[in-house]
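Handout, section B. The chain below has 487 residues.
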Amino acid sequence: MSDVNPILSGSAQSIAAYQDAIEQSTRAVVEWLKQPEMYQGKTVEQLRERINLDFTSQGLGNQAAIERAVEYFLKDSLLVHHAQCVAHLHCPSLVISQAAEVLINATNQSMDSWDQSPSATIIEIKLIEWLREQVGYTAGDAGVFTSGGTQSNLMGLMLARDAFFARQGHSIQQNGLTGDLSKIKVFCSESAHFSVQKNMALMGLGYRSVTQVKTDAFSRMDLADLKAKLAQAKANGEQVMAIVATAGTTDAGAIDPLADIAALAAEHQIWMHVDAAWGGALLLSEKYRDFLNGLELADSVTLDFHKQFFQTISCGAFLLKDARHYELMRYQAAYLNSEFDEEAGVPNLVSKSLQTTRRFDALKLWMGLEALGKKQYAEIIDNGVTLARDVAAFVKTQPHLELVMEPQLASVLFRFRPESDDMAFVALLNQRIGDVLLASGSANVGVTESDGITCLKLTLLNPTVCLEDVKVLLGSVKDTAEQLLKA
């Protein structure tokens, strides 16, 4: 067997190869971090033409493979830490998260059984216990780390579905879906994440099972419309399986009235799931924690740590209020979570997860919390919310810039507003502003819609970005708009 690319092991040869590969990669990353451009500006067509696979029969060796990765991947990657990169919920990462990735990757623990991940299993359980405490749940460890919001939302909806049928004496796990499925509904707001529809389709209930509740002027679920739609569903002979509330909508950062929704859900005996993939970061906030009041009333909660917790992708969690609902999805495999293990108190996390093989992503959050401490973590989370408010105040002072909505979390929705009554023209102009800025490699600004208005979006997650940086970006928006208008 060739020793060009040895398996990572304790041999002297393997250790030397590992050190060389890591050092070469680290040097390349350091140089990449220093480049001033946010993006090299290559188009889709240019990248397709440029990138070619080179799988030779003998192999290139580690050094050449890394060099090619640097040339064709790293150099043409977006600098997510750049001050002008503000389009998406795509955060720069903590240095300590990068260090955690080294440990995660080298050890390659699999979180499906204790004998594949002994210390990792205990650390994850303790973190879940801590996260439950932050939410306001009772002591326990009902929850699991996930790949992110879509998977966590799937777990919430799946358990809501299974609990709904279990109350009627039917086991989905054993017997599958039954009855008139067209009568089963899930409610969410018009601004909820698309994963609600995606997951309902995946579970066999389809898009038509999702009823969208109207939102108010700040993209929050409208309680009056929720009540009306609940009454209409009852009149139609429909049954509401779950209400999905959102704590941090993708564009506006809106947080639905959680406590009021929870009261309605309890009144109608409906499962309440909260998608707090973004807004859940406020669990650590010193200024804005009260925005999440009512979260503790939810039956299940989605959290993401690769957003405003600044962890590398991927890192999320699902929390379940009542541990007994995990019985609805439990499956025993003799080689992973045997009855013998359970009786002996061995914690095998496969029973709590949709995944079997799973990375030890919890390490990143643990190391982040230990390295920064709660106070510094709170400061960098709060910085984005405060900065968004400062940016909004500045936008209001600028001619031809229009604030579309007051910020709620760390996003600002605005548009360039020329002197024109042609709204289609204004919409296209703002779309083209975003496209031109990215093509130039100078900035990445989001383009979205809010209440029918095409607008630009700044997602201000980066704690190193200040108001002056955003002013530079807004200057680029205005300059680009003026160039487009002249053309």
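Note. The chain is about 40% helix and 15% strand. Compare this with the example in section A.
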